[in-house]
Amino acid sequence: MTGQIERIVQVYKTLSKIPSILGARLNNSGTKVSSKWSVRNIDKGKNSQFAVNYILDEDLKVVAESDFGINISNELLSAVSPKETYKAIIREEKNCKDNKCFLEVWSKNCLAHSIDLTALDIHGNVYADTEFGSLDWSPDEKSLIYIAEQKPKKSEPYIKRKPADKEANGGGDKRITPGEEYIYKPDWGEQLVGKKRSVVVKCDLDTESLTLLDGIPEDMCPGQVKFTPDGRAVVGVVWQVFDPSRLGLIFCTNRLSHIFYLSLDGVYRRLSRPEGAVRSPRLSPEGDVVWLQRTLGGPHHACHQIVRLRKNDLDSVIAEQINESKEEILLDIVEDKMYIKNGTFYGMYGLSLPLKCWSRGRLIFSTPCLNEVNSYVLDLESKIITNISLVPAGSTSVLCVVDDKVLASYSNVKTPGQLYIAKIPERGSEMSIQWVRVSAPNPVPELSDAQVEYMNLEHPNCEDDVKSFNCILVSSSEKRPLVVWPHGGPHSAFVNAYSLETAFFHLLGFSSLQVNYRGSIGAGDASVNFLPKRIGAADVIDCKYATDQAVKQFAIDEKRLCLYGGSHGGFLVAHLSGQYPGVYKAVVARNPVIDCSSMAGVTDIPDWCYVEAGLNYHESGEVLDKEILAMRRCSPIVHAHKVKAPTALMLGSNDKRVPCYQGLDYAKRLKANGVNTRVYMYEDNHSLSSLNSEMDNLINGADWFLTHLKE
Q1: Residue 568: inside a domain, yes or no?
Q2: Is residue 462 part of a domain?
Q3: Is 686 a catalytic residue?
Q4: Torsion over CA of 656, 658, 659 and 663, rounded to 10 degrees?
């Protein structure tokens, strides 16, 4: 290895040892914190997960903690029972032949049950993803529910020789249908490959038996299930199935879905509006149901309402005394901003509510807000919102709420994630909250000199309805090269939180400009809805204007500007490279969108290509020439012939969202035009988040920048 590569590798190895918080919970008395962490295990080529416990005194100070982390890497799901008598774990065991799944139930240090779910052959793989996955206890601690893949119907070839005794009895298993083994069955797309039809599974611990709950319509896939407080039913989310053209689900909060009620004896009721997109149902101690809700279709992510169905209205829906849900809006869509008593609020963009989110008539939640993730108290009666985030600039995410205690994670660009706890003051006094740190920090001394600036920008002489956007600049007092880094989505956002990538570039001597262009979340729903029909124009202009302002205001070497981005961020860096060929000196694009018109036919989200180009998505009828042209004209492929900057493309061969052919076609065109181009192909999906993929593309990306900035 060259000296340059050795330095890059050493920086990555240093940062890879810093763990990140996956989640944490408080026990019922609020005196014990059980936390889950993840750390990169380079030798194994994957992340290792471990648990750490903390004991707190009355002042919420740590008086004891685990001596060492406990490896929990093979746990798919876990849940502690309501009275904390048991802990259930769904564990995956891998061997050289196959994978097996076990449900374990522990009573303190005793293994009360161990059930081989694979051997029972009632269902397929257990779902442990963030969209469908759940594991929940019944109030009496006698049952568990979870989500799994439905067993497919058995099939075989039309012509198949059978054993003689089966032939004599008519051919064997009558449940086997010949000739259907190759029928195409769509799944839920990117990062949900193989997940086609979900079922709700109930495990009765007394008999160690499994039951598939009946009553859910055939064209619905259930997930995110929880028992009702009386234990007689479950509440969850169902997504409408449109086969064979099912749209991808992950990172798409706009899909047709309902909150549902299902009694254990099969009575099914829809609780939410018929035409909506919903997620994250939570049941209050009083039996009310609260969930997140937004408009159907449109941008893949946007502002959400928080709505409630009170217990008496829920009972009326169940008894069919009312036809439609009487949902109450606790928090409405915020178009621009709203002023609260201790700041400004821009709406709810979080993908979920905490599993435990209730505190004495109040709901606690977190959401991106401009440059940070902030946490809030929502009074359920007055509907007053109060910001309870930690005071130092950074991001505070609520993990668990028990009575008047709230547990959260906190980090910023310079500080890796830490656990904090606080007592929530009485109603009206929430602003006086005092946070106490639980976990010891993992400092990165080399980040101590980093300067973090929030750049709130507005285009001068602009007639657009939305004129402003924001950026996070991580820089130094010394003049450095700049990595211009627009996020993907496009409806997501950068926040001031610890990131290995950000730290990695800083330690290698770069400043980084993370651009939350117009269309990003956390700045009002009007900003989100501004971007469709303007991609490839407004977002590109924002990135260039942010570059110019950063160079003008801070210690930036204007002759050494780089471009770095993935997905829609890759779309933007390809645009910037083509539209401003003399400005940026090197490009790294990860699974970039290059041509929306050709991508529409092969991606799991064809609606994205239409909507972002300003078109109405449709599957029936004629595909019009003007639609194809509109998608192509907003794409960076139209500027490929002008690109001069050396370009590295990092592609995932299993990417369902932006298939690798987008990047490969772009690379061919760049090479044909004499541009220094290199392609890296990883056996990975859209996120390129497996440890080996991350390590390789970060190290090679940094090497690409450093090498070509010398030229």
Answers
A1: yes
A2: yes
A3: yes
A4: -160
